[in-house]
Design a protein that fits this description.
This protein is α/β, with parallel strands linked by helices. It contains 9 helices and 9 strands. A 7-stranded mixed beta sheet has the order 5-4-3-6-7-9-8, sandwiched between helices. The longest helix has 16 residues.
């Protein structure tokens, strides 16, 4: 059960054609990924149709529930279904170390490349946090598109956007069918790892082809180590991290089993080689914590 998809000779970043909105950056910025309830006052006919298919999304408020999915015995392999989507914002902030910091760093790298009218696509956008945050930072018009194959994720992303008065488009689609065209930025955070290795290079080739010259590809992946001893230490450190954020050992073991053969991570070297193999000349790691790394690749 795959989540679909659910950057020396580059163009100089544009100067003085964008401006960050005051009060939108830093610790004081409202974080829609926290374990809180936000009153979004969703009054939009577009939401009505979404709500008919996803009745757990309340019309008058947006409740971000605590992740307790794996307190119970497994019923099936992991997938981005209604249960996962309903707790995803809590799940990712408690499961991914420095999730918020990594996203902020990616935005800091991406924004200097953008000018009015540029297109940015988030592949595997989940509940839409990255694009909504990008939009909130800038006063220029951008063509922002979030893609995910999970209907419950798209429903929540759309509802968030409506509540924030956003113009971001959230579309349910399979990346293998979706046509990426004339993108200045493409983002794929925690996405490639859910694509079968058989198809992963094909997806990255599409990403490279879909970027304009001077385009940016940002992505974050879970990593494995080719050294068995180091890999065990890496996993143990990560599990302690999750325990410290309220997950029991039982929940951690249950989720690990559910993700078996669903989430298939690469080593750091394998990720770098894949990106270079499809045509990217510049790729760097801009952030790493233990078994998670954020990469930037540039299309010349």
């Amino acid at each position: 059960m795959e989540k679909d998809l659910k950057k020396k000779g580059i163009e100089e970043p544009q100067q003085n054609n964008w401006k960050e909105k005051e009060g939108k950056r830093g610790a004081g910025n409202k974080d829609y990924t926290q374990n809180t309830t936000s009153d979004f006052k969703l009054n939009n006919s577009k939401f009505d149709s979404l709500n008919s298919n996803h009745p757990s999304i309340t019309y008058s408020n947006w409740s971000i529930k605590r992740d307790r999915i794996f307190k119970k015995p497994l019923e099936k392999q992991f997938e981005f279904d209604e249960k996962v989507a309903s707790v995803f914002d809590d799940m990712i902030t408690r499961s991914v170390p420095y999730y918020r910091e990594s996203m902020e760093l990616q935005l800091d790298y991406l924004i200097p490349f953008l000018k009015p009218g540029d297109r940015v696509v988030d592949l595997g956008c989940s509940t839409g946090t990255f694009l909504l945050e990008l939009e909130s930072r800038l006063s220029i018009d951008l063509d922002l598109i979030g893609i995910d194959n999970s209907s419950p994720m798209i429903a929540r992303a759309t509802a968030k956007g409506i509540g924030m008065g956003s113009r971001v488009q959230f579309l349910q689609s399979d990346i293998l069918q979706y046509q990426l065209k004339k993108c200045k930025g493409i983002v794929a955070n925690y996405t490639l790892q859910f694509i079968r290795p058989l198809y992963r290079q094909q997806v990255v080739e599409k990403i490279f082809a879909g970027l304009v010259e001077g385009g940016v590809f940002l992505f974050t992946e879970k990593l494995i180590s080719p050294n068995p001893k180091l890999h065990k230490i890496m996993v143990d450190i990560y599990h302690r991290y999750k325990e410290n954020r309220g997950y029991s050992r039982y929940e951690i073991a249950q989720k690990r089993e559910a993700l078996e053969n669903v989430l298939i991570p690469y080593t750091m070297e394998e990720n770098l080689e894949l990106i270079k193999r499809v045509g990217f000349k510049w790729v760097e790691v801009i952030f790493r914590w233990n078994n998670f790394a954020t990469f930037i690749a540039l299309k010349e």
